[in-house]
């Protein structure tokens, strides 16, 4: 089974692509955002840790009517206080990763050819290390801003800019991803590019069954992908540091 990591900046069109992959191809899409919402429901361990740490910092952290997290207030706070975003990620990412791995294994057991990890912070959270291929959706920054303002009318333009600026840049995503799809034009163009990419990625039925029926092959294939991704990450980070040093000089 091929695990495809799907990522992209906020309001880039990633959710549109995710829906297309599910509806048109019938692929299992493991939505990290949905999982992230589930693991912070009242009473869950991550919820308790977040309340314990942030309740003194964010007065309106809890919605009084049902005890759920006020995600807007929490998001606004951590995107202004960048060091606190790292704390929030440390409280939620381990739980998200566990659930993602569980769902990937379920897809593998059911002889699925492809499954998709829909993860906005795919590279930042190192979830790309689990993927056989990565697909990145990008668009112009101004288009992102306009989509965000339309989708979230309660956010100010500054709120939107903070969220974009606190994510990895499109240039960095493009360098890391195996496949990059631009979403600056029409949906028809985006779908055509996506369809061609998925057809190239899709493994054969024979290989899919061989992986499940012969676990050592699965292990070797997964180990190869993992090591390859570690090497690529190391090479990228080294070149990125050298580029930044040159800028400083």
Please give a handful of descriptors for the protein shown.
249 residues, alpha/beta, Rossmann fold, 5-stranded parallel beta sheet, globular, membrane, Depp_CoAkinase, nucleotide-binding, P-loop_NTPase, transmembrane
Write a structural description.
It holds the Pfam family CoaE. InterPro entries: Depp_CoAkinase, P-loop_NTPase. GO terms for molecular function: ATP binding; dephospho-CoA kinase activity. This is DEKNAAC100387. This protein is of the alpha/beta class. It has a single domain, classed as P-loop containing nucleotide triphosphate hydrolases (Rossmann fold). Helices cover 61% and strands 10% of the residues. The protein contains 11 helices and 5 strands. It has a 5-stranded parallel beta sheet, sandwiched between helices.
Topology (elements, then pairings):
Blueprint: E1 2-8, H1 14-25, E2 28-31, H2 32-38, H3 45-54, H4 71-80, H5 82-109, E3 114-118, E4 133-138, H6 141-151, H7 157-165, H8 170-176, E5 179-182, H9 187-201, H10 205-213, H11 215-248
Parallel strand pairs: 1-3, 1-4, 2-3, 4-5
